[in-house]
Amino acid sequence: MTVFLDQQTLFLVAVAMLLGLVAGSFLNVVIHRLPKMMERRWRDECAELGGSTPAAAEPYNLVVPRSACPQCGHPITALENIPIASYIALGGRCSACKKTISLRYPIVEGFAAVLSGYVAWRYGFSAATLGALLFVWAMVALAFIDLDTFYLPDSITLPLLWAGLLFNTGSVFIDLPSAVIGAAAGYIALWSVYWIFKLATGKEGMGYGDFKLLAAIGAWLGWKMLPLVILLSSVVGAVIGIGLVVFARHGRNAPIPFGPYLAAAGVIALFWGEPLTRQYLNLF
Description:
It is a single chain. The protein is mainly α and 284 residues long. It has helices at 2-49, 85-89, 104-123, 127-149, 154-167, 176-201, 208-221, 226-247, 259-282. It is globular, with a radius of gyration of 21 Å.
């Protein structure tokens, strides 16, 4: 029986990792295209507000046009779109123009696969596995989008928040009252920090997307995890920020996105939040 269960677990982990690779490939599309889709929509809205008709443009969404090399426009074939394997087979270069393909693509795919495999190993055959997969994939997408553009799209954060509440109607990760309070407390916590900082300095320390992201994390993990998430994200953000200033000559006044640190802290809290919280409380 134990051997059978182990084989079941290994099978589930393997399937989850393969699914994670496919999801990672799609996440690369989301990371690249969603900000551009947002900017196009904003331009159209501005044109309408100005009383002019938005210029006609070719359809651009997560499905069309077909993926192509950003350097030469070479359409990516099915064989060239196999996660990680195609990158290795091509030597990290476009098959047409031989320009270097960003290492970001296999990194996102590999990261999604590893996280997916760990989710399957940790939660097994359960609703928690499905929920955790959605959660970690969203965290990966949000982290890289914010890193590139300083955007945390509502089209990801808000559905993620509602999905967390829906999953927790069945107490998958936490009971529903804790999830509702977590969503509200997550938003209010960073909203308060934002206004305190703005009133004190006259500057905006973070964006509204950060409030919504922490609210979504609270909806999935409950209010008790929020102090840990805020502490972890702040410590990691401070360390990396200082490192950028000291070693990369990053300007002290240059903005640093907070979303990637919140996303990383959310994933850590999902997997190891309870033991970390116990260890922290034991210090006192």
